[in-house]
């Protein structure tokens, strides 16, 4: 078994039910990476897996950026494994923003570090922040890749693991989900 999946299961991070994802799609399963991240030993191990894959891909990284909330801690741990700094973006009035005195210097090579990537929406909100500062987003990284893709919009996607979980358009829900209220566990409004 994939070590990341093993740790997700050990930490009770794989949930079943009816979930409304941040993307607006619905799913029978949800990955609550916060349950994995609450264990510092598991979080450090997963971060080292991601950092190793980044190094193996030959990607030069100057800075890790984690979109709030899910990316903050794992971005810090990946940055620690890579020996670079970590910062985070956060929403102000529902717009992804750089605050708290954080700086992204022009021409820096930046990776975005997420807990889960499904559509890349939060990641690309952060790409916009990075580009506005004149830096280069060189990869998207995550604990879990739910997208089924190896790249999104031309950016390489590097994850500790890939998990394929079906998701559904809200206008095309299966019968069992139509009759069950959806839980929205994500952080996006």
UniProtKB/TrEMBL annotation:
Pathway(s) annotated for this protein in UniProt: Pyrimidine metabolism; UMP biosynthesis via de novo pathway; UMP from orotate: step 1/2
At which positions is 5-phospho-alpha-D-ribose 1-diphosphate bound? 91, 114-122
A Pfam match is: Pribosyltran
Gene Ontology biological-process entries: 'de novo' UMP biosynthetic process; pyrimidine nucleobase biosynthetic process
Reaction it catalyzes = orotidine 5'-phosphate + diphosphate = orotate + 5-phospho-alpha-D-ribose 1-diphosphate
Q: Which cofactor does it need?
A: Mg(2+)
Keywords attached to this entry: Glycosyltransferase, Magnesium, Pyrimidine biosynthesis, Transferase
Residues covered by the Phosphoribosyltransferase domain: 40-146
Residues binding orotate: 118, 146
Give the matching InterPro entries. OPRT, Orotate_PRibTrfase_bac, PRTase-like, PRTase_dom
Give the HAMAP family listed for this entry: PyrE
Q: Which family does it belong to?
A: Belongs to the purine/pyrimidine phosphoribosyltransferase family. PyrE subfamily.
Report quaternary structure and partners.
Homodimer.
What name appears for this protein in its UniProt entry? Answer: Orotate phosphoribosyltransferase
Which gene is the coding source of this polypeptide chain?
pyrE
